[in-house]
Structures are given as C-alpha cells and as structure tokens.
Amino acid sequence: MNDQEIVVAGVYKRYPRPGGEVPALEDVSLTVAKGEILGLLGVNGAGKSTLVRILSTLLRPDSGTVSIAGHDVQAEPDAVRRSIGVAQQEVGLDESRPVHAVLDHHARLYGLSRRAAAKRIEELLEILTLRGVAKRRIHSLSGGMRRKVDLALALVHGPPVIFLDEPTFGMDPPSRFEFWERIRSLRDEGATILLTTQYLEEADRLADRVAILSGGRVVREGTPEELKRTVGNSTLELDFAEPAEAALAASLLRGASRQLRHSVHLPVTGPDDLRVALDVLEADAVRPIALRLEEPSLDRLLMPARDPVSVPAEQPL
Amino acid sequence: MSPVHPPGWGRQLAMLTARSLAVSSRNPVVAINAGLAIFFILVYDGSLGGSPVVSSLVGGNYFDFILPAAILAASIAGGAAGISLVTDLHSNYFYRQLTMPISRTALICATILVGGIQVLVQTVAVIGVAVLLGANPEGGLVALGVICLLALLWGLGFAGYSVLVAILSRDPQITSAASIVFLPIIFLSPLLLPEEQLRPWVQTASDFNPASYTLKAMRELLSSGLPSHYLGDAFLATAILASVTLGGALLALRRLTRG
User: Fold this and answer.
1) Cβ A64 vs Cβ A35: under 8 Å
2) What would the pLDDT profile of A131-168 be if each residue is shown by its tens digit?
3) Count of CB contacts below 8 A, A vs B?
4) CB spacing of B102 vs A91 below 8 angstroms
5) Contact status of A153 with chain B (Cβ, < 8 Å)
6) Measured between CB atoms, does A58 come within 8 Å of chain B?
7) Which of A107, B66, B103, B222 is surrounded by the fewest CB atoms within 10 Å?
8) Does A90 touch chain B (CB under 8 A)?
9) Which domains does chain A have, with CATH numbers?
10) pTM metric for this prediction
11) Nearest partner of B194 among B74, B73, B70, B56, judged by Cα
C-alpha cells in the first residue's frame, strides 16, 4: 500500500515574461508520507509558492505529475480539492463578514450538515482561541487573528492534507509558538502537512523532513538533523577586548578565522576541541572576554557561502 | 472527519448567491444607482414632459415614454458584480474559493446573479416611484412583471460583461471604467425619441443594439400590455447578451485558472 499522500514527480513550470519565459520550477520531485510534516525551505523567488499553487490546483504544471491523496491534480482536481486545506501566503478572507458567518459558509460548502458545521466551528474557535472575535467582522481583526481565521478556514472540513504557505509570516513570537503547537497536534491527529517557510527555526522545530528549494530546484532533502550535519561543525565564537588579541588568537588556533576586529570563529567538533583551544590561548595569556558555542543551523543552507571577513588591524571599521 | 461531500450545483449556487447578497447589502451602490435612475426620469420629464411638441413626437405621455429608459439606466448597477469579483480577487478570497470543491460555473453565476438581482431591485424601486409620480402603466401588473423579467435579463447581461472585464483585467479601476460602454449602448437606441425620429445612422446602429428591442418592448408593455409585438425580439436579444457575456466570463475564468 502506498502511504505517500503527496507525490510530486518531475514538475516544471515556467512563467511567460516580456523577452522570454522565466523558470519557476525545474524538475521538482518530492514525496510526503501520510502523517508527516515536510518543511519546504527557500528564499523569496525559490519557487515555494508556485509549487503550493500547483498542489492546491490553482496552477497547472507545464509537465510532470502531482498526486494528492491518490488523486492526480490535473485529472481529478475536484477530488484533490475535497482532500486539501490551504492557507496561502496572503490570507484570503471574506473581509466584510463576521468570522463565524464565514466559517459556517465554508463548512456548508464542504457539505457539512448544519449541526456538524456548528460543532466543528466551536472546536476551531476553541482550539485557535478565536471565540472572543467570532462575531467580529474580519477586516477589524489584527494580522495574527486574521492568520488564525485563515487557518480555521483551511481546517474547517478536517482535510487529510494541509498546505501552509508561510503561515506564520507577520505573527508575533507568542502567536507563532501557539501556531506551532497547533500544527504538531494536526500531525499527531494524522494530517499530512506541507509547510513552506523562510523561518528556519520553524522548519527545524516542526518538520519531520525538510526540502530546500533554490532556483526552482530541490537542492537538499532530509531530516533537519541530517541537513544540519551536512552544514558542518559547531562554531566556537570568541570575543576579545583588543583587536591585537583577536589577531594573535587567530594565528594560534589552527582553522580559526578572524571575524570583525574583536572576534575569532573556530569550527569545533566536540568538548575536546573546546578545551584544547582554551588551553592554547591560556598558554600565551590570551584571554577572551566572551565565548559562545554556535550550533549548526539550517540558516547556512539558505545563505550563499561567505568567506570570513579579513580585516587589517589598522583599518577602521 | 468523514469524507467531504459538497452540495450539488444548485445548492452551491444558492449558498454563493446568499453570501454575495450579504456582502453587497453593505454596499451603497444599489441605492445610489436607484437614486440616479429616479433623478433621470424626473429631470427628463421636468425638461421635456411639459412640451406638447415632445408629447406629439412620442405619441403620448412623455413620462410613460421615458420610464423604460430609466429602468434600462438602472442596469448599470449590474456593473457592481464585476467590482465585487475584483474585490474578492484582490483580497485573495477568490483564490481560496478556487481551492475548494465548488463549481467554477456556480461561482461565476452567483456573482452575475447578484448583479441581476440588484438591477431587479432597482427596477422595482424605479417603477414604484414612477407610479407614485403619475406614471400610468396600462398593461397592468402582469406587464410590469414581464418588464421586471426583461430588466433582470438585461441586468444579468450587463453583470456578465462586468465580471468578464474583472477577470480579464483583475483591476478595480478598469472594471469600474468599463461601465462606460453602457453610454453608447443606451444612447444608440430610441432612448429619447421614437425610432422613426432618429437620424438614419442612429437607426442603423439601433437595429443591432439589444437595448433598442428591450426599450421598445417595455414601452409597448407599459402602454398596451400583453401581447407585445416586440417581446420575443427583446427576450431573444437580452438572452443572447446574457449568454455571450456569461460564456465569455467562464472562458476568461478558465484561462485565469489554467495558469
């Protein structure tokens, strides 16, 4: 039995522009298993939203195949639409109407009976802490609340597959943490979730697997831990009171690089490296004023490789 | 949750229409257009209705003659359908609806239907005010009902046109400005004088103008009721207009969603 709820195979999409076509997706293939959260990471213009629009039947791929819950998006779009819930990057809300009325309208359009709709809406208002604004018109709500209403609309029919396109963009940290909790609960309840985000912490904390999209191609794929291992080691960051001390430390520590005038970065693989580095500095009486251990982060996968800044001591910054 | 079973097409249409009516009920454009239509008949009657020369030109009471023109003028309210759609496009709500298992034709037809209903409401208001001001529809209530039906069809056609422009342009200003096409359509018809009084080139244009058949049928219904000599042509012309604009809007939507 195939337990892949989302299967994308060899998808290409180009947009016509004056002077030629611009590639948005180039041979994109990925799968998401039932009950899994796939984090789709990429910078602006990487192709994340284009892929979500194809998955949610808003856009046709130029070539390739996409199936959701066993239904082909081009051959059976209605079956796909019955299986998905979508929260787009830009919230799509019926601005002039009250929250409850909009939720009820959507629930009924999905075929829920009046009683089932009322029960489901009560659940969502409770879970997403929207009860206090249920009678308010949507245009009067804050950005965070509007995001929650948008999510409620995506969930009102209890879809098995959920697409969340940068769902926490613009949310304050408490709302974001609360949102993450809700996404985890959905996964625990068996939903399959594709989440696009630019927040690497979000992908790191939520996703079972991460795919990195760059220039319309999937360039990396794996669990957050696997990807972080490909990034490299942890980094010991040492700050010094004087630039001359930083320069001396950089010369004493093999593999260290100078960062700005007062700092040195040293890749380390474990506690032994840390101890050895401090011993070497202590032997020459070079004492840092601050130490930080920077764990490998998915951030580095999205950023172009940067050489350490080489700063002559005499050059003011 | 149990599997999703969306309602049938007719139920979807009813639900989407109810939603659009709820949204448009907060929009003052219907009342403004009705006011303009009433102002239109008052001004024309005030300027020309007292003239025996004009009365002899139109073959009777100028107020009764100009009333269908005011009803037709009210159909510009159908343009609100396009504005409503472009608002949903801009708020992204329209795209959310496209991710739902609802019929595209129901989505478009509901928007157009609301435009037609707005025209119908205005038509009833205009006729009501006209009767209060002294109009004397000889055709009686049945004739007035048929006039309302013609106005609804005409409104559906104009609403379809505005929805077509909204989908093609996705621009509120262009959609709003597109209503200007209404002016040549109503003025290249026997709007102010009977057809035989028009210059030949206007008469020719009038022959190809669906508004002419609607005007003539409404005037005949007001003056002598059923049966109406022009009614078949009027229904045919307005039905063709509504079908063409609805078909165009659906094709445009298909192009929009094909990506």
Assistant:
1) no
2) 999 999 999 998 888 988 999 999 999 999 999 988 88
3) 79
4) no
5) yes
6) yes
7) B103
8) yes
9) 4-222 (3.40.50.300), 232-302 (3.30.70)
10) 0.79
11) B56
